[in-house]
Amino acid sequence: MLKNKVLLVEDDNLLRMGIKSLISLQGDYVVASDVATGKEAIQSFTQSPSDIVLLDLRLPDMPGTEVLKKIRKMDKGTKIVILTSCNNNDMLYESLEHGTNAYVLKGENPEELLLAIKYALKDDIFISPKLAKNIVKDYLFATRQRKSSPKLHDLTAREIEIVKLIFDGNKSREIAQALSISVKTVDKHRSNILQKLGVHSFNELRQRGAYFLNLTSDN
User: Fold this and answer.
1) This prediction's pTM
2) Positive or negative CA dihedral for 28, 32, 35, 39?
């Protein structure tokens, strides 16, 4: 039976030896190359593409994400498993965006790494349970923010324009001059905006509207 070729990229020599031994003990894999730098990883993969790349994100010569992007450009089918101490959600999202198949935290049970490799080979995504918990928290927080935030689609284009001007610190008279309308019309718009969004003041809208503010900045 053909064994899956593994490229191991890890700058900690002791850890690299340990991972290599762990992988080699499994009957389905062979560590074809183990290197300590990003440059060596790219060179090794260019000369002999591997089925699986075990990649550390913190390398001495370049970010692991750069190695990830270069390898992914060379071969979209290779399975890339990130093995890292980076428990930062932003780093996880960036890695997933650039095509990683699994994200495993160092220091966890070795079985987690082996499970991640199996998931990757089946084209499934694997994320360390500790990080998966954080992702769920982020999702639930974002969902609550969306539900509690004012609904942008209820406003007209002119009303959105006025909200932006108000948030920029403009008074009704200044808004009227900027839009070539009367102060009375501005005040009417202000009243309609508050009514539509179910708030009592623009101060309250500011407090509730971090998500809303992001939306208005895109329009």
Assistant:
1) 0.66
2) negative
